[in-house]
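subagent[fold] <- orchestrator: predict structure for attached chain, return tokens only, no commentary.
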Amino acid sequence: MAATSKVQPIKTSDQLDRTALIDEFGALDVEVKAFAPTKTRHEDLAKTIRAWYPDEVLPAHHATTAPGTSCDVLVGMRGEERHIVSMIRIFKLLGKGRFLELCHIALKALEEALGKEAVEAQVVYKRTGPRKLTVLAKLGKAA
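subagent[fold] -> orchestrator:
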């Protein structure tokens, strides 16, 4: 059996910076995962409260206050979003080639319009998404 060396290689400042960042990421990952149920519940409650105020009850340009016992919630007016008035006009302004370069269609919308099988025949899968990071805790080490 070969003896293991007790001498540790000297780490550069870049390696030390990376190690510190990895350790910080691991510690934050634990916190984020622990907070996830709270975040989900908060989002669910927000969705429920917003559902109480459809445009028929509260016009988009109005705000109101939802009363509680320990707090009130200000339900603001709807945010503004930009929408294209006429895709045909945009097509004519850009021309076919440039329009097709810029045009992006949501695959979900295509599946709803054409069916999943028809869309699957027209798409390819590429590994272009973000890389998944998984924290692997080391035994005996504090997070």
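orchestrator: received. Logging for downstream: The chain is about 45% helix and 5% strand. The mean pLDDT is 91.
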